[in-house]
Here is the input.
Amino acid sequence: MQSFLDVFLHLDRHLEAFLSAHGLWVLALLFVVIFCETGLIVTPFLPGDSLLFAVGSLANTHSQVLSVWMTMLLVFLAATLGDAFNFTTSRRLGDRFLAWDKGRWVKPKHLERTHDFYERHGGRAVILARFAPILRTYVPFVAGVAHMAPRKFLSFNIVGAALWTTTIIGLGYAFGSVPVVKQHFELVVLGIVVISLVPVAWTALRPGRPKQASA
Here is the structure.
């Protein structure tokens, strides 16, 4: 746990060390992490926003090795394919998986909050959830279980992945190399987490539920 926390709070240093040791294999690592965070409902704990911010900063300081445009494209593909895999799998196996899981991996409270978020925002939830951990992992699952139209989901999925990728990596590229940010990167990471959790907290604390899904 301590090692995971150290990696999480100092992603910039660990990514830089990985890039120095393995070169562009850092992109493969990035693809796997983002795909798993968005595509597998059992790994919502993986870093998303903080990882994208860190890799954006890395693309700035090591632009001769790591292209920011290549990085954005790769993350876009990983995020889009991850959500698509999550959605497709849940359409086919979602109900059976939940019956088998019995709350061991998928926490009922997380799924309930995600369902509330999905009901309030419908298809827009697929886009909005990109910027919120936990929701980012569970909204495609809920959309699949609810049998959202695949073409509709795909369109929201692509738009959400593009906005999330360009926004977070772009912020990291623009501000990640600023001295005060580099010196206090762990505080920046915690700030990103707090800000990204606002939609989750708002959904959990907002009174009342809609009677019917808008999706």
Summary: The CA atoms of residues 114 and 139 lie 6 Å apart. The chain has twelve helices and no strands. The mean pLDDT is 82. The first helix runs from residue 2 to 9.
